[in-house]
Amino acid sequence: MNAVLAQAVPAAECEPVPAIAVVLLGTGVVGGAFLKLLNTPAAASLRLVGAANSRRQQTEPVKLAERNLREQLKSTGAQRDDAALLAALDASGAAIKVIVDATASAELAARHAEWLAHGYHVVTANKSLGGGELPGWRTLQAALANGARYGDSATVGAGLPVLSTLRRLRQCGDALLTLEGVFSGSLSYLFNSYDGSRPFSVLLREARERGYTEPDPRADLSGEDVARKLLIIARNAGFALGWDEVQVEGLVPESLRALGTEAFLDRLEELDEPLAARHAEAKARGNVLRFLARLNQRGRARVGLSEVPANHPAARLYGTDNQFALTTTRYHTQPLVIQGPGAGPEVTAQALLGDVLALG
Ligand SMILES: NC(=O)C1=CN([C@@H]2O[C@H](COP(=O)(O)OP(=O)(O)OC[C@H]3O[C@@H](n4cnc5c(N)ncnc54)[C@H](OP(=O)(O)O)[C@@H]3O)[C@@H](O)[C@H]2O)C=CC1
Ligand SMILES: N[C@@H](CC=O)C(=O)O
After folding, report:
1. Where would I find the Homoserine dehydrogenase catalytic domain in this sequence (predicted)?
2. Residue with CA nearest ligand 2 atom 3
């Protein structure tokens, strides 16, 4: 009798209701690392009910459980359709339904507020909404009013405790006065490593292979990714800054700006000469190059390449280190400094998992 019943009931209905149901958007560098974490004991309370790349998606439990899901999605699965992924979340019966955005898609980010308004929680590595145009940020804040939560730890410092610290300080009545530091893991890696002995383009390819850069590394080199992080921090600190209020000095020459990603990657060597010249000039003055972000007390923001002396705090970074120096009304004699690896698939995926688990 039991065997007959088991055959008659669809597999999904037989599964116990999970505490937290998750849909993963993006199975690239970060999404792939997140999928690995889902197979660890730390994620035992989570059930993956859907996963998608830009073209295909999967909602069948058996297929989702396969170790090579990421590879499978490259050639098999249903056509992309957000509605089917949301339906899988609803059908899970879980009290906590989470959409994890591990893409860099502005189109998907533009839907975060709508998902939150419908009661789904959103956990994101995608900075396009929080660090995008100001009206998008305001829509996000309005959507959060109904109790759904937005996990954005991965968007700044790849999960270093920057936003959580800032929120805690604000809760206690403290206020950010100034902010300064190195907010890009890839640019930190590049300028911490670059001594002129190997071309900049070689180091950039290395950073890309290690999963430190954005899908299109021009998003890093142009300063756009750093500006997004600065905006996310500033807005969370109460500065309603727009894109036009950040002065950005990028590293991508005019000749490489309009190319497609692949064509740009074929011409990375064109970055070598200008950067070698800037490095040599800085070195002649006893300085080093660092890609810095700054927000001053009047809300003036700037990101760009700077020469700093060897005893500057940013000159003493290693690998992908980020550094966030926060001066506040209560940390005013010396800044509160948060420092550590600020890019990479594992730490970023862990930040996503941490935000999902915090919903439980
Ligand atoms: N790398 C890092 O250290 C950090 C990255 N981040 C952020 O993480 C995000 C992802 O970066 P990364 O993993 O390196 O990028 P990848 O390019 O490796 O992966 C992006 C993934 O998103 C998928 N995708 C694009 N559009 C859609 C869509 N509409 N629906 C579903 N999936 C889509 C891509 O699909 P397809 O495979 O079909 O192209 C791909 O699987 C970015 O926003 C980045 O800023 C944040 C902190 C640190
Ligand atoms: N490309 C980014 C990754 C994290 O946000 C960086 O280099 O910091």
Report:
1. 161-357
2. 343
